[in-house]
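Table S2 (continued). Query chain:
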Amino acid sequence: MFWLVASTVGAALMASAMIVVRLRASKKPASIKKIVLPPLFMSTGALMFVFPVFQIAWIQVLEAFVVGMFFSIFLIKSSKFEIRDDDIFLVPSRAFPLILIGLLVARIIIKLLVGSQISLAETSGMFFILAFGMIFTWRIAMLYQFLQLKKLSYR
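Corresponding output:
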């Protein structure tokens, strides 16, 4: 029970940090590096799967990644760019904090359902893949939007 509460509080703190980071990021021009680096840095967390306790079946990997891709739709819809003074900026969405809170609640519910069926370590592995699938898909879509806008700005 302790780990369930601790991981939920940790996820809430990370969601709060994401809201703050996202609001600050909208004050500076976007770049390819700023879009690509977060999932690249996050990918190092996949080293957890070196340890057998975190390893899950391929079907669970696929399920978690697909759920993450589905969740990313909400983030993609709330991420828009605009050109200001020859630079491209991420436009802060008023819905973004609500979307993050909604995704957090959905993840907690899924964690409660899945966590009662498999071990804490396997649940951790699945939720890492879910989060990576969500962030990776979101950032690919952001990169595409950014490059399209950049192409328009050079015309």
